Prior knowledge:
Blueprint: H1 30-41, H2 52-66, E1 73-76, E2 86-91, E3 101-106, E4 125-127, E5 130-132, H3 140-155, E6 164-169, H4 180-187, E7 196-199, E8 203-206, E9 217-226, E10 228-237, E11 241-242, H5 251-264, H6 273-286, H7 289-299, H8 304-310, H9 314-319, E12 323-331, E13 337-338, E14 341-350, H10 356-367, E15 373-376, H11 391-404, E16 409-415, H12 421-426, E17 431-433, E18 452-454, H13 455-473
Parallel strand pairs: 3-6, 3-7, 7-17, 9-16
Antiparallel strand pairs: 1-2, 2-6, 4-5, 5-18, 8-9, 9-17, 10-14, 10-15, 11-13, 12-14
Amino acid sequence: MVAQDGAMPFALIPLILAASLVNAAPEPDMAGFRATYRTLVETDTTLAHGDCTQAAARMADVLRNAGFGEQQITRFAAPDHPREGGLVAVWPGHSTTLKPLLLLAHIDVVEARREDWPRDPFTLVEADGYFHARGAFDDKAQAAIFVDVLAQLAREHAHTKRTVKLALTCGEETNGAFNGAQWLAANQRDLIDAGFALNEGGGGLTNGKPVAAGGTIVAQTVQVGEKTFATYQLETRNRGGHSSAPRPDNAIYQLAHALDQIEATRFPVEFNATTRAYFQAVGTARGDATGRAMVALAADPADKAALWQVDTDAFLHANIRTTCVATMLEAGHAANALAQRARATVNCRIFPGHSVEDIGHTLERAIGDPEVSVTALLPLRASPPPPPLDPAVLEPMQKLVAKYWPGVVLAPQMANGYTDATYLTAAGIPTYGVPGLWGDADGNGVHGLDERVEVRAVLTGRQFLGELIHAYIF
């Protein structure tokens, strides 16, 4: 059996646990790592008030102090976005055949207002087994880990086979903002050139209870591909008039009817190599009614009973199809006037293999009213195919998951959301979201209030990712 991309199917990758095949990294200096993590988290990098360029400079200082030379560090910032810069650091290997490994992490964070939070969102607090702060999880934990791994290589004067690169970028959290990963791919492609990249997007799934409170990790995932983010504007217009004389051609009602059709639209069930492997592996590991339905649906996408059960889970429902949902409305100009214009924003997360243009046409057909315009809003993201389920990338992950969490499955997973992997994959650098850290079932306050992550998840993640990177570069 061979996958469509020619790589070995994920479920058939051999799991060899000989100790010699797991390249253990030296024990990290956790005090030093904590200091790096605190510095990064406590540097405000919101778009409205923060400074990614300053955060990148502070991480460059960490690398210099560890032994990186100036020629190994490139800081960048676009002239019209001086506070949204980043850095690329390179630790050279001696192999002339192995292509570099790229570590990618975004250092910008979602806005957080002090008046909304129970504590200062930009002060890292350790309490009740958790780190609390904006960015403590998304994505500064992984960014700090990557910085610390490279700093340790420099302190030890490590002689690696493979070159390893680090890119810390801004702009991932705000669609339409200056995006460092996109800028590097378009303007400094050679600087970040790599055989593959490690990024956010994977991680552990718990049994619904925090590990700090006795919960367990039931699965680890590696992100392999993601949906395409696309936003469409629906608009209706007419001449309007006085509200005392209503007419049938009402812009608001016409838009409402169009939204009814969008709500009723169900995109077809689809699988690719990643989602099928995820449904098989995680469904088997779950063992409950939904798990059994996942396995059945992966085998037969026409199984209506299995689909009904799977669709009771919001994530799984979205993971096997394109979804479109209304997110914003705007209409009218006065309380005593008929609306001359009505607009709605519809956000779609598009299953790989479909273009933004194609989904726009699908919405037009579903609405069935030529007077309702459907416009894809800028910026338009690329729709690259997912990277391959490459054994050379996935086997080291499997081995280390088995070492750290015996009996826990590692499953590939397609993201329903999006990350900067879109830009790298479109530029020809296959990008994977790493396992290691884990979150709680409630989402850990990411993008919301009291963002937090288990202390144990971060410290274990530092050890796990250190070993994983070593497995690729030595």
